[in-house]
Structure formats: structure tokens, C-alpha cells
Design goal:
Elements: E1 7-11, H1 16-27, E2 31-36, H2 39-49, E3 54-58, H3 64-78, E4 83-86, H4 101-129, E5 132-137, H5 150-170, E6 175-182, H6 188-195, H7 202-211, H8 221-232, E7 243-246
Parallel strand pairs: 1-2, 1-4, 2-3, 4-5, 5-6, 6-7
Helix pairs in contact: 1-8, 3-4, 4-5, 6-7
Bound molecules: nicotinamide-adenine-dinucleotide.
């Protein structure tokens, strides 16, 4: 378990995997700062967890100074930052001949550059306090692609490269850096994606996506959260630079 005094900063913690992880960390005794664009949802999660254990900070990770401000608020309230979960991710779809340069740039800015900016500040904070753990969210799509996901897939593969390098550069500072690669997880992101196919029923699509996973279901946000809490814990002390697939076996199967 994470030590009682741990302070965790979660980017993208207002819903989905991030909110489940905020709950899992507070259950393990940690204090949590949730940084997210969605104020109403983020405030609600923080209120549910209690003002002594959690706070919400509105933050757009596309703006580096807002990432920095979230760090300031976390340190101000909880004195230090022991764990950072860089979990924001967005998708803009299109084949490379159709996808605009703006969509490509924005995807990389939110999914990758924000994690670089956050890692930079995390390392500075963790050096000050003697170490810590950074968990970055990659994706199954960083390992294998789906059509029209060039920007998302490139950003998520790059997250793993960033993670490995932070891990080896700062192992001597007592900092571990790992990434996770979820398969399809039943979150608002996936539920919204299922509703965008006008010619298909969302429940049929979700069943179809579930069937692609050998476990024949979508993952639960709580299952990803439990893995993140473990990776951040001293029990995972020899794990750094690694990527953990949490994918219901989908990456292990060549032909379905
Ligand atoms: N759900 C899946 O199937 C799945 C699979 C693989 C990887 N992932 C990754 O897991 C992470 C979380 O996904 P999720 O499914 O919980 O998504 P979600 O959309 O339900 O939650 C993402 C959170 O990020 C926040 N966010 C988006 N843009 C932001 C910005 N610019 N600044 C600050 N916050 C912002 C959203 O408000 C939301 O609270 C993402 O990085 C995603 O790419 C998800």
C-alpha cells in the first residue's frame, strides 16, 4: 500500500480511469489532487472523497502553466507530491491524408507534450523530497494500431519512450517512472465513442469491442486503478521504465 502520507497528483481525474484511481488512492490512505478540465465532475469526485483527503484544481494540460499551477496547489495543500498519474488522453481520428496538422499537433500536445511538461516538474519536486513515482498512461494503441488512429497511436507509443527515458535518467534520484497500456475500458470516453456511430446501437458496438478481448468483456476503470496503485507502491519498487498491459489479453492474440 502507498504510505499514509502520500500525496498523489492525478491529471485527468474527473471521470473514467482517473476518477477510479483517485478513489483507489484515497482508499489506500493517500491524499489526492485531481487536475482536470471538467470542473463540475472533478469537484464532485473531490467532494465525495472529502476535503481533508482530496481537492480539485481546474487545469487544461494543453497549457503548460496550468500544469505547473496544479503542482503548486498540490504542494500547497499536501506539502509534497509523491506520486503523479499523467492520465489525460484525447483522440482525433483520420487517415494521414485526411487528418489536419492542427489535429495532429493538438493530439500530441495533450497526450504527449503535457506528460513531458508534467514529468519535468514531477522530477523537480521529487528530487526535492527524495523520490517518488510517475505513472504515465499509454494505451494498447501504442502497441498495435487501429485504422484512423495515427495521431493517437503515435502519441501513445511516444509516451512509452518518454517513460523509459525518465526512468533511466532519474533512477538515481529515487524516482521510478512506469506506463500503463489499457485495452478497451468501460469509461465515458468509450461510451461516447460508441454513440458516435449513428448506424449502430452503442450496446451492440460495446459487445463487439468486448468480444475482441480474449476475456470477452471490457475492462473496468477500477481494474486499471488497482494496477496504478500497485505500481506506485513500494511493493513495485523494482519496476521502472516498464509498460504494463491491462488489456484483457487482446495484445496476446494474433488472430481472433
Ligand atoms: N478507456 C479506454 O478504453 C482507454 C484505452 C486505452 C487508453 N486509455 C487512456 O486512458 C486515459 C483515460 O481515459 P478514460 O477512458 O478514462 O477517458 P475519459 O475521457 O473518460 O477521461 C479522461 C479525463 O481527461 C480529462 N481531459 C481531457 N482533456 C483534458 C485537458 N486538455 N486537460 C485536462 N484534463 C483533460 C477529461 O475531462 C476526463 O476527465 C487516457 O489517456 C486514454 O487515452 C483509455
Amino acid at each position: 500500500m502507498v504510505p499514509q502520507i502520500s500525496s498523489v497528483l492525478i491529471f485527468g481525474g474527473a471521470r473514467g480511469i482517473g476518477a477510479a484511481t483517485a478513489r483507489a488512492f484515497t482508499d489506500s490512505g493517500a491524499r489526492v489532487t485531481i487536475a482536470d478540465l471538467l470542473a463540475e465532475e472533478g469537484e464532485a469526485v473531490a467532494a465525495e472523497l472529502g476535503s481533508d483527503r482530496a481537492q480539485f484544481v481546474r487545469c487544461d494540460v494543453a497549457e503548460p502553466q496550468q500544469i505547473s499551477a496544479a503542482y503548486d496547489r498540490a504542494v500547497e495543500k499536501f506539502d509534497a507530491i509523491n506520486v503523479v498519474f499523467n492520465n489525460v488522453g484525447i483522440a482525433r481520428y483520420g487517415t494521414v491524408d485526411e487528418l489536419s496538422l492542427d489535429d495532429w499537433d493538438f493530439t500530441l500536445r495533450v497526450n504527449l507534450t503535457a506528460q513531458f511538461v508534467s514529468c519535468k516538474r514531477a522530477v523537480q519536486e521529487m528530487k526535492r523530497t527524495g523520490g517518488g513515482v510517475i505513472v504515465n498512461t499509454a494505451s494498447i494503441l501504442g502497441h498495435a494500431s487501429q485504422k484512423t488512429t495515427a495521431a493517437y497511436a503515435a502519441s501513445k507509443a511516444a509516451v512509452m519512450g518518454l517513460t523509459r527515458t525518465v526512468a533511466i535518467d532519474h533512477a538515481g534520484d529515487g524516482i521510478r517512472c512506469v506506463s500503463i497500456s489499457p485495452g478497451t475500458i468501460d469509461t465515458p470516453l468509450v461510451q461516447i465513442a460508441a454513440r458516435t456511430f449513428k448506424d449502430r446501437k452503442p450496446e451492440d458496438l460495446e459487445r463487439e469491442w468486448a468480444a475482441h478481448h480474449p476475456l470477452n468483456r471490457l475492462g473496468k476503470p477500477e481494474e486499471v486503478a488497482a494496477a496504478v496503485v500497485f505500481l506506485a507502491s513500494p511493493q513495485a519498487g523494482f519496476i521502472t521504465g516498464s509498460d504494463l498491459l491491462i488489456d484483457g489479453g487482446i495484445r496476446s492474440e494474433l488472430y481472433a
